[in-house]
Amino acid sequence: PGQFRATLTAQPRSVALLANPTGPATEMWLYNEDTVAPLIDVFEGDRIEITFVNHLPQPSTIHWHGLPVPSDQDGNPDAMVEPGGTRIYTFTLPLGSSGTYWYHPHPHRLSSEQVFRGLAGPIIVRAKNDPLATYPERHLFISDLKLLADGVIPPNTMMDWMNGREGQYVLLNGQHQPRIQLNGNERWRIWNACNARYVRLSLNSHTFSQVGTDGGLLTHAVHDLKDIVLAPAERAELIVSAPPQPTSFLLTAAPYDRKKMTMGHGSPSDDPTIVLAQIKTSNAQPLHLPDRLRDIAPLDKPTATKKIVFSEKMNMLAMGMNHDGFPSGMEFLLNGRSFAMGRIDQESRKDEVELWEIVNHSDMDHPFHIHGAQFQIVEREHKGQITPEPILAWKDTANVRPDETVRLKIVQTLTGKRMYHCHILEHEDLGMMGIVNVV
Ligand code: C2O
Ligand code: CU
Ligand code: CU
């Protein structure tokens, strides 16, 4: 087994911006020097050792989103690294953990700000026997940035807190509308690392195949897709092919109606289509994907059930901003409660398959995420109508629409406290989070 060692230093950096390179410099918060944090590119079975140095003016942690790491190494909000502090995270990646993951801060009430200022990076865990290893890879790490004209990244407004913050610049690998040369058949790994933006990706009318989700490859490819929606924190692996004749087209994010609250300021369907990249193609090659990408065994019959209910409480009369930068008059709740650090909300048994029912009793979409394990979505229910999940896949984030129930199977293989929460980071910071203790 290999060893991977790195140091990640979270620090303020002044960058001539990406979105507007000739404009005023912007102070971002970055891991190391670059506007895209270092890629952690490792194999199943590897031992990882990351030294985290916190040069931010706030406490922070690093969370390894989607990976089955021991709970005391997972950057939980009760294990803060203070400003000026250092800690080492170590863990070994089990066999079967290949997939596309990421890392980001997880300090309670501060995750939203730390991520929107630039702290997030990609992780790839490779299988030793990867059937798609010969395809050239392209990595599209999507983030968004809200900038004022003077280059300043402003704090969250009341509407940012309510709906989750969306920046007007959508960046690919830290760049605004890069040019991409698509050569033959490529394997694309895509991360939605935005705080709250849902991304409906398409390549004009050019089709592509999906071969993977959050937790790695599917059992077989899904072909002829025209678009794919990634909720915040979701990832996908695609195979994208150059068409027979060289051509060019745009990679765009078309609007997705996630039922944002508008308070009378226009309708969400006014959201524009955003250009992410300009693509030129060359060198078409026939595509022969293997019939079977890998085996995924459906999880056994569950022996316990959990029910998690998303809800919101809005008090229009009390709505406003407090001096500490947090809003009043809005509550984001799980099972009627706001997050409390010392409280255990659920108990699970290690190695037991559980059915988690995630119910959305609010008016907008919320992406549900749980730490420590990948799950399998079983079915979705909307107003009494049940739709079985069409594909078997490993996921750690699942979007839940208003009035929808998502049923998923999960088994935690490590003991300790795990967080589960809405991955709209403003909602997480406002308390839409709970703790499951695995014993
Ligand atoms: Cu990516 Cu608890 O989060
Ligand atoms: Cu996570
Ligand atoms: Cu939410």
TrEMBL record:
<dbReference type="GO" id="GO:0005507">
    <property type="term" value="F:copper ion binding"/>
</dbReference>
<dbReference type="GO" id="GO:0042597">
    <property type="term" value="C:periplasmic space"/>
</dbReference>
<keyword id="KW-0732">Signal</keyword>
<feature type="domain" description="Plastocyanin-like">
    <location>
        <begin position="22"/>
        <end position="129"/>
    </location>
</feature>
<keyword id="KW-0560">Oxidoreductase</keyword>
<dbReference type="GO" id="GO:0016491">
    <property type="term" value="F:oxidoreductase activity"/>
</dbReference>
<keyword id="KW-0479">Metal-binding</keyword>
<feature type="domain" description="Plastocyanin-like">
    <location>
        <begin position="320"/>
        <end position="438"/>
    </location>
</feature>
<protein>
    <submittedName>
        <fullName>Bilirubin oxidase</fullName>
    </submittedName>
</protein>
